[in-house]
Amino acid sequence: MSAPRREMEGRAAAAVLAGIALLGLAVRLYRLDAVSYDLDEYLSVRLVNMPSLGDFFRTFSFWAPDNVAPFFAAQYLAAQLFDNPERGMRLMSTAFGVGGILLAHAVGARAFGRRAGLVAAWCFALSPMQWWFAQSGRSSTFSNMAALASLYALLRLLETPRARGWLAALG
């Protein structure tokens, strides 16, 4: 295959991936404000409504000392960007969900080729479980994205082993 044709196919695949990511974003945003909170999200709602970061950390360390503090701190800071903190809390999960779509593509493409990467992105974008995760205030979308990033780093490392690559894969 000629270089211009490969480049054209690469651009077409990038356009398809962008469309899949936008579709995934649209379904994750659909009725976002109408989704009710589950009992385990109540702590997140309380935390993002704390008046200061200090109050947030004091409350978090008391009520959730065994949870992922960096995620909830980022969630608190993201929520402060909006006049409706609960919307900001959920939009952060939505952003991680869209990041997961892109990383599902990267993993699929690295392991099995460009077409498989697009299929993986499509499946991730339209998975009802992923929609639900992205519309919640939980750390599930962050965990999914971190797992996919780690898997991608491992796949790259297996192709071209380097000492610092092991640090990225294990980090």
Note down, in words, how this protein is organized:
With 171 residues, the protein is mostly helical. It contains 9 helices and no strands. The chain has helices at 3-29, 42-48, 53-63, 69-79, 85-112, 114-125, 128-134, 140-159, 163-170.
Task: Record the SSE blueprint.
Layout lengths: L2 H27 L12 H7 L4 H11 L5 H11 L5 H28 L1 H12 L2 H7 L5 H20 L3 H8 L1
What's the story with the biggest beta sheet?
Answer: none
Strand content: under 5%
Radius of gyration: 18 Å
Q: What's the helical proportion of residues?
A: over 70%
Note poorly predicted spans: none
Rounded to the nearest angstrom, the distance between the terminal CA atoms is 38 Å
Shape descriptor: globular
Mean pLDDT: 88
- Content-based structural category: mainly alpha
Query: So how many helices?
Result: 9
User: Which sequence of SSEs, written as H and E, runs from N to C?
Assistant: HHHHHHHHH
State the total count of DSSP E strands.
0
